[in-house]
Specification:
Elements: H1 6-17, E1 47-50, E2 56-60, E3 65-69, E4 74-78, E5 87-90, E6 97-101, E7 104-109, E8 114-120, E9 126-129, E10 135-148, E11 154-164, E12 167-170, E13 176-180, E14 189-193, E15 199-203, E16 212-215, E17 221-226, E18 230-235, E19 241-245, E20 251-254, E21 260-265, E22 268-273, E23 279-284, E24 290-295, E25 301-306, E26 311-315, E27 320-324, E28 332-335, E29 341-346, E30 349-354, E31 360-365, E32 370-375, E33 381-386, E34 391-397, E35 403-409, E36 414-419, E37 425-430, E38 436-440, E39 446-450, E40 457-462, E41 468-473, E42 477-482, E43 488-493, E44 501-504, E45 511-514, E46 518-522, E47 529-534
Antiparallel strand pairs: 1-2, 2-3, 3-4, 5-6, 6-7, 7-8, 9-10, 10-11, 12-13, 13-14, 14-15, 16-17, 17-18, 18-19, 20-21, 21-22, 22-23, 24-25, 25-26, 26-27, 28-29, 29-30, 30-31, 32-33, 33-34, 34-35, 36-37, 37-38, 38-39, 40-41, 41-42, 42-43, 44-45, 45-46, 46-47
Length: about 550
């Protein structure tokens, strides 16, 4: 194999990075459930794995496991799990792919996509193959099971964590296994004898979530990463901490040469000297945090996967790369009034999709990380909250994405947005101080600030005649507001939990309110409760027309 220096790889990484398209790709409509017209996106990337030879990429999502070849083309969507897939791992010889979902682990032939067998057990939250391929480590609630990969039988059961084990790493020689929970209440790292399951060391020092573990190629050092307090290096034999690197991280991995540590820091890959902790270089790589940064077993391929929906796969030998897109973590969505377009938010982009076939139409660049989203009833405006550079709501031309105006204020961020039926008024509800702000959507002027809720304003809805604004809050109340005067008209109580959804019937004679366990139907004119439906999950509500 042709050898190249990592400095050459880095230079080409920077020069070629910005040549890749940032636009969404159309999604293959494979494996749709009965009655579903189209799928928007491919599902958020919960975990990624690269085959040992770097020729195949597996991405675990809520709808199954996507397989890609080295050119970025979709090979298949592996389905069969009944819940979202949390983890994937290739065997060291590349002949088996393991996927974990709920209480089942499925083994696949990645070359034929055939399902080999299923192991049942406790909830599988993480997976890792031992270097010799004989053992599969399965992270679960408060521990780890070591399974015989031929039979699925449990060889050892390791306990000690207080939450689900979501991070696993074998040492390259296969003698040790490191584990972490990636939970704010369980920041411990456990070292185990990977062959006997014996507990060797408990490493403490991180105050909160440990999200990444990686051994140095010579087995001597374990690196652990946390977003809150930096990177810690540990002597893998004694468990003693040898160094703290004051660099926060979302992910980390040792380079195959052992001299460099790659760190996902927001959307940037930061390269650190593994001995001194000094920053060698920062590489702008993604628009959002990098949750996975890994190398193939043979060191030929590097993979970075981000919450911006992109996964980049780099061939170190040929210095070429591909970008796999579409695995977005959609924060919010909104349906256009005519029902033909759905807008979804990911990082600083709004993606517009055709609802009839699921095909991608357009991307609108917000310029800042986006949050709550809403269409105006006339279809001409998209309102989106942005999370950076102060509190503001951007009003965009829904077709072109051009900024019409921005609404700015001092205070907490937005939890809910709603337009009046005539599109002339916009209301925003905050998540912290319980304030509702009512704006003139045409000139951007603030008309009222309504401050009766004592907790977050979860949902806002206008009455069909546009004269009344109704708000539902974390304080378990529903409040009616007169839009002419800004005065509180009525307060409805009765929900046991916060009010998550509200919907008027088309004729305005009924108001439905819901949360995770109950649905109430009200007479909005007098506030009388008409009916309560227990057990109905009412996180989202809509009346038929």
């Amino acid at each position: 194999m042709k050898k190249i220096s990592f400095s050459s790889f880095i230079l080409l990484f920077v020069s070629m990075l910005f040549l890749t398209s940032s636009f969404a790709q159309d999604t293959p409509q494979w494996g749709l459930p009965d009655g579903v017209k189209a799928r928007i996106g491919k599902g958020r990337a919960n975990d990624v794995a690269v085959s040992p030879d770097g020729t195949q990429l597996a991405i675990a999502t809520g709808i199954g496991v996507w397989l890609y070849d080295e050119t970025g083309n979709e090979i298949a969507l592996l389905t069969g799990h009944t819940r979202h897939v949390e983890s994937v791992a290739y065997s060291p010889n590349g002949k088996t792919l393991a996927s974990g979902s709920g209480s089942e682990i499925r083994l696949w032939d990645p070359s034929t996509q055939a399902h080999k067998t299923t192991f049942m057990g406790q909830q599988a939250t993480s997976l890792a193959y031992s270097p010799d391929g004989r053992t599969l480590a399965v992270g679960r609630w408060q521990g780890i099971d070591l399974l015989n990969v031929q039979t699925g039988k449990r060889k050892s059961s390791l306990s000690g964590h207080t939450h689900h084990v979501r991070v696993l790493a074998f040492s390259p020689d296969g003698k040790k296994l490191a584990s972490a929970a990636n939970h704010r209440e369980d920041a411990t790292i456990f070292l185990w004898n990977a062959r006997t399951g014996k507990h060797l060391r408990t490493l403490t020092g991180h105050p909160r979530n440990v999200h990444s573990l990686t051994f140095s190629p010579d087995n001597s050092t374990l690196a652990s990463g946390s977003r809150d307090d930096g990177i810690r290096l540990w002597n893998a034999k004694t468990g003693k901490q040898t160094r703290t690197i004051e660099e926060w991280s979302d992910s980390l991995t040792y380079f195959p040469d052992g001299k460099t540590i790659g760190v996902g820091q927001g959307g940037t890959i930061v390269l650190l000297n593994a001995n001194t902790g000094d920053v060698l270089q920062g590489l702008p790589a993604h628009k959002d945090g990098i949750h996975s940064l890994i190398f193939s077993l043979d060191g030929s391929t590097a993979v970075s996967s981000s919450w911006d929906g992109t996964t980049r796969l780099w061939d170190v030998e040929t210095l070429s790369f591909i970008t796999v897109e579409g695995h977005f973590n959609f924060h919010r969505s909104a349906l256009s009034p005519n029902g033909k377009t759905v807008a979804v938010v990911n990082a600083a982009n709004i993606f517009l999709y055709n609802t009839l076939n699921g095909q991608f139409n357009k991307v609108l660049d917000v310029g800042r990380r986006g949050g709550v989203l809403a269409y105006s009833p006339d279809g001409g405006t998209l309102a989106i909250e942005t999370w950076e550079d102060g509190r503001q709501i951007h009003l965009l031309n829904a077709r072109t994405g051009k900024l019409k105006r921005s609404l700015r204020w001092e205070g907490d961020g937005v939890r809910s947005i709603a337009f009046s039926p005539d599109s002339k008024t916009l209301a925003s509800g905050s998540w912290g101080d319980g304030a509702i702000r009512v704006w003139n959507a045409k000139n951007g002027k603030l008309q009222y600030t309504l401050s009766e809720h004592t907790e977050s304003v979860e949902i806002l809805v206008f009455s069909p005649d546009g004269k009344t604004l109704v708000s539902g809050g974390g304080d378990r109340t529903i409040r009616f507001w007169n839009l002419q005067t800004g005065q509180l008209q009525r307060t409805l109580e009765g929900h046991r939990y916060w009010v998550q959804s509200l919907a008027f019937s088309p004729n305005g004679n009924t108001l439905a309110s819901g949360n995770g366990g109950e649905l109430h139907l009200w007479n909005p004119r007098n506030g009388q409760l008409k009916q309560t439906i227990e057990g109905a999950r009412g996180e989202a509500l809509a009346f038929s027309k």
